[in-house]
């Protein structure tokens, strides 16, 4: 299902935690961690811009204006041109309910994995069981959340 470019809120389906960059980050130009936030965090923590690519099934995901990519099997927001953005595949997970998706790398051999436990833990990129809810995210247009 193609996504319409625009603003979306991303949450883990496991615990409804928002997914996004940390509230407090260092001031360097190093890549920034994508982490889970408490369920009651303000929606701007989990606000994402989804942009299209020439391939209609792939998307660039930006959080706080920074594109995301895989750095050491972790989802990171990149402030510079290097490393380049990952072209993510957003695949429906209809068995998990409406507006539920897996976010996969461009090869479709690994996907975002929501961390368990307390907030502020990194979202990882792992091969895994597509039926595992830790690999499923709710993605809603900003106006619907």
What does this entry look like structurally?
With 145 residues, this protein is mainly beta. The chain has a single domain, classed as Trefoil (Acidic Fibroblast Growth Factor, subunit A), CATH 2.80.10.50. The protein has strands at residues 6-12, 19-21, 32-36, 47-52, 58-63, 66-71, 74-78, 88-92, 100-104, 111-113, 124-126, 137-141. The protein has a 6-stranded antiparallel barrel with strand order 1-4-5-8-9-12. The protein has a two-stranded antiparallel ribbon with strand order 10-11. A hairpin with a 2-residue loop joins strand 6 and strand 7. The two termini are 20 Å apart. The model has no long low-confidence stretch (mean pLDDT 91). GO terms for molecular function: serine-type endopeptidase inhibitor activity. Residues 111-130 are annotated as: Disordered. InterPro entries: Inhibitor_I66.
């Amino acid at each position: 299902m193609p996504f319409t470019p625009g603003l979306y809120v991303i949450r883990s389906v496991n615990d409804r935690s928002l997914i996004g960059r940390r509230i407090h980050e260092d001031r360097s130009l190093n890549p920034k961690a994508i982490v889970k936030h408490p369920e009651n965090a303000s929606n701007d923590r989990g606000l994402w811009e989804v942009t299209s690519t020439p391939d209609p099934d792939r998307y660039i995901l930006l959080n706080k204006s920074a594109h995301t990519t895989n750095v050491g099997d972790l989802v990171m927001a990149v402030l510079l041109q290097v490393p380049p953005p990952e072209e993510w595949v957003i695949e429906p997970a209809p068995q998990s309910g409406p507006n539920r998706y897996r976010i996969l790398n461009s090869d479709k051999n690994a996907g975002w994995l929501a961390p368990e436990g307390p907030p502020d833990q990194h979202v990882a990129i792992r091969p895994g069981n597509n039926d595992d809810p830790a690999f499923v995210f709710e993605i809603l247009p900003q106006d619907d959340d």
